[in-house]
Amino acid sequence: MDKTLEQRVQALEDQQAIVRLKARYVNLNDGGWDGKGTHRHAIEVADLFVDDGVWDGRPNAGYAVGREGIRALFESFAAVPFIVHYVTNPLIEVDGDIATGHWHALVTATLPDRQGLWTLGLYKEQYLRTAQGWKFRTLRFETAANTTYDLGWAKQQFAFGEQGFGEITG
User: Fold this and answer.
1) pLDDT value at position 152?
2) From residue 58, how far is each of 65, 117, 123, 152, 164 by CA, in Å?
3) Structural element, H or E, at residue 127
4) Which helix (H) or strand (E) holds 92?
5) Which of 86, 98, 110, 130 sits in a 20 to 30 Å window from 170, CA-based?
């Protein structure tokens, strides 16, 4: 059955709202170029998720359930002195009050030991429409490469092993 003009406009507005949600997430996470460090917005990041939301960066960057767990995890990421996420190629499918998203990502970072890091992969996400707007239900990052800046993904795709670089602590 063909969708009405109103349904098509609503789908476009929903997709755009999800793009803005993702942009807010990335902007809250990135930082370090101002000398103030990164991840100063753990509460705001956690608020982008539904109450029982899931953030899944295993095996490289952790796993958290619920806003409090996500907040605590993102506070632990503050030890990373510099990070920038580049997300591209969004594929967003909306079905009423739920949606899915698929994004390519390149993340550049400086680890606490001052080593440069390249991380490439895919975000696979689920969203839920709430009274406050669209929120993440699940955010999963699947790593395609995780390597030092010096080596790059061509020489050593997983410089830290496929099990990741472990806990990020201050």
Assistant:
1) 81
2) 13, 17, 12, 21, 8
3) strand 116-130
4) strand 82-95
5) 86
Smallest Cα–Cα separation from 22: which of 121, 80, 103, 95?
103
Output phi, psi for 9, to 5 deg.
Answer: -65, -45
CB 80 within 8 A of CB 108: no
Give the confidence band of 163 by pLDDT, cuts at 50, 70, 90. very low
Q: Can you give the residue ranges of every domain in the chain?
A: 5-155
Q: Which uninterrupted H or E stretch holds 27? A: helix 5-29
pLDDT confidence tier of residue 119, bands split at 50, 70 and 90: very high
String of b and e for 6-34 (b: at least 16 CB within 10 Å)?
A: eeeeebeebbebbbebbeebbebbbbbee
Q: Looking at the predicted structure, is the pLDDT value of residue 169 above 60?
A: no
Confidence band for 54, pLDDT divided at 50, 70 and 90: very high
Above 70 in pLDDT, residue 126? yes
